[in-house]
Amino acid sequence: MNKIITQSSELTYITELYRDGMVDTGFTKLSHLERLAQLRRRRKAWANLEWKSSSVVQLNDLCHAYELVGGLFAHWDSNVAEFVTTSLQSSTPPCRRNVPGITPRDFAIDPGQDIVVFMEPHGNPSSPEEPAVFKLHVRSISTQGPHAKARSPILPVVVPPNSRHITYVPGVTVQLADDIVALMLCTGRRQQLILYNWRDGNLIFDSAERGYDYPREIDFSFINSRAYLLTYPGTSEENGSIQIYSFESVQGFDPVHVASLLLPELDRDARFQSISPHTGPFETPLPNTPFTTSSTLRLYVLTLSILYDRTRLGIEPQLEVFHLFVKCSTFLSYLWAFHSGESPKGLSVPWSLWGRSGSRLLPSLSPSSSWMRYVHGQKVVFPQKRGSSDKTVVRILNFNVHPSLEEEQEPDPNLPVLCAAPTRIRHCFRHVVTTTLPYSTGTCTLFELSDEYSAYMIDEDHIVGIKAGGDFDEEIQELHVFTFCERPDTNLEAPSSSTSP
Predict the structure, then answer these.
(1) Where are the beta strands (DSSP E) in 50-131?
(2) What phi, psi does 107 have (nearest 5°)?
(3) pTM (whole model) above 0.70
(4) Secondary structure class of 413 (helix, strand, coil)
């Protein structure tokens, strides 16, 4: 069988695609041999952590909201009320565009669908009896006009009134997955989840409308365009959990609670403050791109913030932070079991049945940062702690590893190291927590001299260093782009450094 595969460029390409966690897009006329050569160049660059070129993008903007999807960095410049897009594959200046009548709280993009969804407040309630009203504007990135596939380019969002005081919405997040747009709205002590199909304009689910009373501590992330997870920190009587839901794109559909994956029990003096999930964006493949990261092989990074309060023992309270790494395949396995009839809905899964082999728990690898997009596919980028060297270095964790293949290779001190041995952590947990999900870890030198970045991002082909200032790093100054693989230009707007009407 191996001989047959190695003698066929098509079979070799398919096999190596799967090994790299990629899928073919069908958008290219390149031969299988040419695609295989590109795939291997990409694999070598990331395996050796060697970037090929670098560039600096000058911005000096007040960044109100941002996204990095498909090689396109987009942000809203609050200084001049402009939507700014920067292609990481192009040397052209950022494209700046006025969007008349819109001042978004947040937005989401998918360059492969040429879509941006802006979330905009629509007036302010003047009394406790009035709801807070928002609008979702479904637009084309390239024209900023209504998106051609959106039946209703403006979708209404209503936050019910608060009976005691004027409705205030301090937090808003927008996420896209194919034809579904999701919104999480923090309304004081509660959260409201809304799911829309942006193409047909149907409101699939509104948690407030359906009477769901979500506490403000929950968080949301898509699993795919028909499933999502909610993280729940629990209570003094209830353990923290990852709750998996499935839904259909039908107006008024009530999502089905498929399973709850319980987190390890905490010490009597500890409690989860928050469980924040993060994964790479859901992106549609771009034209002329031969292959792309598989959305089913993505990695989730859950930041566990735990308050460890031992004042009864005379010890000052501490905030402990851990990262829990979980592959998407873990969540999908429970969805598949439910939809095939192998398991009932609402399944409660103890940590002992899924966590040991299905995750990796590590102490926090980075200082707190408001910048996201530090995970893509199965790779995660973190700042490397300063040592005796003055170099600017990042650490890359890669969970797309194959221990049986890795162990056959000769160890090289300059290449990432396989971590297959168990991690054991006790500290603020009730029992020793053992996790075994294998990964590799290595460092990548960005500069031979020391340079300070506020945060790092990663996508399929780049590491991006963010230079920002201000009290909350909201004043974005520069993007330092380190390119590992060349791809087509993804800036869908006409390249221009000037403001266009």
Answers:
(1) 53-69, 72-77, 82-87, 95-98, 106-110, 115-121
(2) -155, 165
(3) yes
(4) coil
